[in-house]
Amino acid sequence: MALGDYVWAAGIATELVNTTAEVWRGDDHLPDLAGLVAFAELHGHQPGDDDVPGALSELARHGRAADLHAVHALRTTVRDLIDRPDRDYLIAGATALTSSAQGATLIRDPAHENRTRWAAPLREGATVADALSLICGIGILGVVYTLGEQRFRPCGAPTCRGAFIDTTRPGSRRYCTPGLCGNRTNVANHRARQAATHNRRTNSR
């Protein structure tokens, strides 16, 4: 897991915490091993994959019931960290999540010939929960170090219970799923304005 890939890793953490039944109003998006495989295949790839992103789908396909339970426990832990954006708390919690790494080393940088980059390889015998834990830990640590603890937020949509880590350049993200929660909020605000306009016209008659 390349340490510089914290933006991608923080995105995985956001996606993971927003799979819960609480966020989806009773519909858990990681209900079984098939759902875990689908999650890994959807989110586990990026340009210049190193060992962890590349292994995520394969580890999920070999997962067992205990691995699914461990991933469920992990998303609870990660959500707790996002919900408590205290710098020391985030650092301590995220550091614990990286325990499945072998340690720090250098790996080849696919973007630059004859150059290397810092990485934390996944230990031998790791599970899909270990891989996701390492990804989330590096994502959180990278964001705290680079962008600050104020980037950990609840979703701004009034009816949503999701949360997210904002890695955008301006730091202005408001929703856990902008294409869903943002659109719902815009539609609700539009309807509210229409209703207010209708009421004013009715009352003026």
Please give the alpha-carbon distance between the first and last residues.
67 Å
Name the helicity range. Answer: 40-55%
Structural class: mainly alpha
Strand order of the largest sheet: 1-2
What is the number of strand segments? Answer: 4
Strand and helix order: HHHHHEEHEEH
Counting DSSP H or I runs of 4 or more residues, the number of helices is: 7
Could you please describe the fold and organization of this structure?
With 205 residues, the protein is mostly helical. Helices cover 53% and strands 7% of the residues. The protein has seven helices and four strands. It has helices spanning 6-17, 33-43, 51-61, 65-83, 87-97, 128-146, 178-203, and strands spanning 105-108, 116-119, 152-154, 163-165. A two-stranded antiparallel sheet has the order 1-2. The chain has a two-stranded antiparallel sheet with strand order 3-4. The longest helix is centred in the last third of the chain and has 26 residues, at 178-203. It starts with 5 loop residues before the first helix and ends with a helix.
